[in-house]
Amino acid sequence: MSSQDSGFFATANARFRSPELIARTFVPPEQFQRLTKVSHTVMVGPRGSGKTTLLKMLTPEALEASSAVKRFRLQEGVKFTGIFVPADISWNRQVAALEDWDVPSQVTADLFEASFVASVIRSFSASIHERLTRSVPQIWLNLAPLTLSPEEESAVARALADVWRLDLRIPSFLGLRAAASARIVELGNAASQIHRTNDFASLEPLLAGGDLVAQMTLALDVLEALVPALRGEKWCLLFDELELAPPAVRRSLMSAMRSVDDRLIFKLAISPYSSDLSDLLSVVAAMPGHDHDEIWLSYGHKRDAMRFSFDLMEEVVRERLGQEVNLEALLGTALFPAEDPEGLIDKAPGGDLSNTQEDYVRDLYDIDRSFAAYVDQAVGGVDQLLATTGQQRAQYLRKILPLVIVRVAFRTSDLSRSSGSRRYRSRKSPHIYAGATALAAVLEGNPRWIIGVMSALLEKQGQRISAQVQSGEITQTRNRFRALLSTIPISQSSVDTRRGLLPLIDRIGQSFRLGIVGANFTSDPVGTFVVDASASDALVDALGSAVNTGAIVYVPDSNSSGLLTSMRGKRFRLSYLLSTGYQLPLRLERAASLRAVLAKGVTDEQPELFSDL
Amino acid sequence: MNSLSSSAISEFVVASEGIHERWDVMIVALGYEERSVHVAKEYSDRADTRVALAFGSSDTLSYGRNATILEDLEFALESMPADVGRCVINHVENVVSEVPRIAIDVSSFTRGHLAQIVDALRFFRRACSIDFLYSPAGASNWQGDVGPITIAQPIHPGFTSWVDDPAAPLAALIGVGVEDNLALGIAEYLDVSYAHAFVPVGGDAAFDSMNVEANSQFFLAEYTVRRSEYKLGDPFRLFLRLESLIYGMSPVIRVAIVPLGPKIFALCGLLAASVSGRSSTVWRFSSSNLASPDERVAAGPIHSLRVEVVGSARNNDRT
């Protein structure tokens, strides 16, 4: 086990976990089999959606570990050597720091491109080492086993160092990796002084070498010449968090990809909203040599995420408790009706509504005059409503049940409400978001949230986890997410965004809450929004940040591929994790224009969004 | 911008707390806080040359009165330069003494200015001794709401970190302040695997209680493995702790220092990052100029940290 896998580094964030550790508990989403194909792929998903995990699972290290634990099977062995190229959040921010000091933008761009290329070379060197030292069964990695003698390895390493102009101290593939690391550090030292020295000439030796694809192609030629058994093998560049690379680096990469060697495959992970995502997609579509594929790791429709959420939640439980445990037994039955197309949970005995759910319907009928009027008009009374069957039951009862639950939980009774009094109950969470299916919905199929929340819950209560503990963990996770949203830097150029990203999201949530909980009952309230064609660029950018973090979720229509190449005209919902803070049901509601939603979202009764339990 | 040879890299050591009896030059910032003249009032008579770098905020809070006080104390008022570090270098170059003694009051400089000054230490040609002076704020109307963040980036090119392995775990050393949940948000934004919260003590009691409230969620986060206090009056010990942490962690972990809260943490963090080479970075999270200005009065005590700069000329001779 490497140092990063031990103690407090065992986090829910795949970024810091080794491929071997990831493989031990990996639960493949349905998209994974597509990702293993020999095709150029753009994989799009918000923060925490599992992009890093999926890419790392394509490396020889992860495939070897998977072959040992056998938690899943591949339809066929992977036919390429995966080269995982990590990203660093400070990359594009460092550009801004340099540009603040009037370092010419071309110099900055060249420095970052050279650093990026060195980073790829570093990863490539390590992957050659893994390819030639790992013993992976061909049903996992379908490449012929191959080893080199120390002399052969030394010769190849020296030749590659010449190609890459690296100062090779140790003639091996890991020595090449060390030399590439040293190059990155050299570039960093140069970058940290250039604002005072203006000594651009001394940078030239570090910047020479050509673009990424040219250097990789040349390296493959050398590799194949010296190791003929590798001829024709595919090498797959797995670029993680491409949005973190400075724009100039992305443009350079896209330019290089247009003339790529067919020994190279590109799998690119990127956030949903990126100004050059459209360009990236068209470049990948036009790349020669292989098919291309697009993978979307976000779930506008809850049912799409449920299978994966349940599988991963069960895996976390199995890993923590050392045994299989039924999630309903562990977490209880949710009050919200489950969208359960795959029969993940046992149906409640005695009908489609539990006694508690029936009590909620009767309670609301008693305390909410607008609901009583709706029921009376629709079916004649609450007894008649609960006795409905067939299509009528679906239309009048099952459809409104989530709305009934949040109104009973959070709305002040009309019986106790006087003119001018509060519209919402002040009590904190009544735990309506607890229970297996509700928790799975709240966690959105987001592996980071699932692993983080389930691990914390199991830490607190091992066998039966109370609704109160679940609600507390949801609140804590939501608070952390809200803190992130309030820290993401935003443009201040528009009145739409002047107050920041979190207040913008809050206004949307408050608007939905007003219509769903506060106003007179309607069976078809607004709970999603469509971005207006006239939305300002600053607003679109802010919403883009919200999509990238998972605060809002794109809801593609049935004819759409799911990839988000533009925000305007597209439909979104709030993440269910945030929805718990706005006291909303966990399902898709009707859409309205964002302009109309924001116009309604100002209220003097702010929900207790940052409450502690 | 003047150029310096890339080979002219100086070294410096953070020596101790202590205040020289005489300085060749004293540099302060003329700002709108009442405390921005406190050090000058107490110690300007020890300085042969007195320079006040003036922010352009002439009609804000105590600015006008501060300007009058500094003029009465015979400070030369200069406009705040784009590069305060270069300005300090120039003043050192003009001193006749063999080893110039400089005093810099950091209390009212921005964190960005402090980064410029500490960055410049590596580009001094002459050896010199610098006393950094700090006047903590007394009872103030502390604001927990800083408004939307508009800047989140390494504080200065000299404090970026070009790591060879972006997949290495990231540890954040965060000096926490009173901004509601900002430390938590930053830890989430930077995607840290480990956070160490530094909590200031020995200052205003109201600050202390707001600090606890503003960071309660952060202190509970599972990656916040350590919450420790530092004394505002003992910056040398704070520097040593930060330097030791960076030294101990940086072989296997990337380190990001985030200076929220008192400026003395920013100074110590920048110095520790600078002496650690390229193994750590210092970040700036700012609501830019959108936050409303707040008055800060001086609590009274003045704390110091001494830095001895070797100077690149002597450094090159030695090598």
What structural class do you assign from the helix and strand content of chain A?
alpha/beta
Please bin the fraction of helical residues of chain A: 40-55%
The helix fraction of chain B, in percent, is: 25-40%
Spans of chain A of at least 5 consecutive residues whose pLDDT stays below 50 are: 1-10, 604-613
Count of individual domains of chain B: 2
CATH class of the largest domain in chain B: Alpha Beta
CATH topology-level name of the largest domain in chain B: Rossmann fold
Largest sheet of chain A: 5 strands, parallel
Report the sheet-strand fraction of chain B. 25-35%
- Poorly predicted runs of chain B are 1-7
Overall average residue pLDDT of chain A: 85
Distance between the termini of chain B: 28 Å
Number of strands of chain A: 9
Q: Please, how many helices of chain A?
A: 26
Shape of chain A: elongated
Supply Rg of chain B.
Answer: 19 Å
Based on the structure given, which CATH architecture of the largest domain in chain B is correct?
3-Layer(aba) Sandwich
Radius of gyration of chain A: 27 Å
Structural class of the helices, strands and pairings of chain B? alpha/beta
- Order of neighbouring strands in the sheet with most strands of chain A: 2-3-4-1-5
Shape of chain B: globular
Can you describe this structure?
- The complex is a heterodimer of chains A (613) and B (319).
- Chain A is of the alpha/beta class.
- Chain A has 3 domains: 33-297, no CATH class; 303-485, no CATH class; 501-600, no CATH class.
- In chain A, 49% of the residues lie in helices and 8% in strands.
- Chain A has helices at 19-24, 32-35, 51-56, 60-69, 90-99, 105-133, 150-164, 173-197, 204-207, 212-226, 247-257, 277-286, 302-321, 327-331, 355-367, 369-379, 382-386, 390-398, 401-410, 436-442, 447-460, 467-485, 501-518, 537-549, 576-582, 594-600, and strands at residues 39-44, 80-85, 234-239, 264-270, 291-296, 526-530, 552-554, 571-574, 590-593.
- In chain A, the strands form 2 sheets. Chain A has a 5-stranded parallel sheet. A 4-stranded mixed sheet of chain A has the order 7-8-6-9.
- Chain B is an alpha/beta fold.
- Chain B has helices at 38-43, 63-72, 84-93, 111-120, 182-189, 205-214, 216-220, 235-249, 263-275, 312-318, and strands spanning 12-16, 23-30, 47-54, 76-79, 101-105, 128-134, 151-154, 170-175, 194-201, 224-231, 254-259, 280-286, 303-309.
- In chain B, the strands form 2 sheets. A 7-stranded mixed sheet of chain B has the order 1-13-6-5-2-3-4.
- Chain B starts with 11 loop residues before the first strand and ends with a helix.
- The chains are: A alpha/beta (613), B alpha/beta (319).
- At the A-B interface, helix 5, helix 6, helix 8 and helix 22 of A face strand 7, helix 5 and helix 7 of B.
